[in-house]
Amino acid sequence: MAMNEIARILLEQYQFDVSVMSQPWMYWWLLLPITAYVAFFLVKWAMLTAPLWLPIALVLGAKISREN
Fold first, then answer.
1. Which of 43, 41, 46, 42 is nearest to 21 (CA)?
2. pLDDT for 53-68, tens place per residue?
3. Are 51 and 16 in contact (CB under 8 A)?
4. Taking the CA of residue 11 as centre, how many other CA atoms within 13 Å lie in the half-sphere pointing to its CB?
5. 12-31: string of b/e by CB count within 10 Å (b at 16+)?
6. DSSP assignments along 1-68, one per residue
7. From its phi and psi, is residue 29 left (phi > 0), alpha (psi between -120 and 50) or beta?
8. Given a cut of 90, is residue 37 above it in pLDDT?
9. Which of 13, 20, 19 is nearest to 5 (CA)?
10. Domain limits of the chain?
11. Confidence class for position 46, pLDDT limits 50, 70, 90
């Protein structure tokens, strides 16, 4: 059940981001609004998906440091 909630939240956030990036005003004034939103988007999705990629990164980092 928890995985369904997480998947639902991620899907809702993705749909929101698509709707924001589909607004014409995001592309006015030399693309400054979309550039700022893309920076926010990258940080937001790094945080939202951290439970998926962070354990993998930690395990791989530990494995690489053991080999050195």
1. 41
2. 999 999 999 988 888 7
3. no
4. 6
5. eeeeebeeeeeeeebeeeee
6. -HHHHHHHHHHHHHHHHHHHHT-GGGG-STTHHHHHHHHHHHHHHHHHTHHHHHHHHHHHHHHHHHH-
7. left
8. yes
9. 13
10. 2-67
11. very high
- How many angstroms separate the most distant Cα atoms in the chain? 51
Task: Report the C-alpha gap between 58 and 27 in whole angstroms.
Answer: 38
What is the token pair recorded at 3? 């995985």
Task: Provide CB contacts within 8 A for 51, sequence distance 6+.
Answer: 6
Of the chain, the percentage scoring pLDDT greater than 70 comes to 99
Tokens of residue 15, six digits: 């749909």
Q: Tokens 């990036």, residue?
A: 21
CA 6 from chain centre, in angstroms, equals 14
Residue length, the chain? Answer: 68
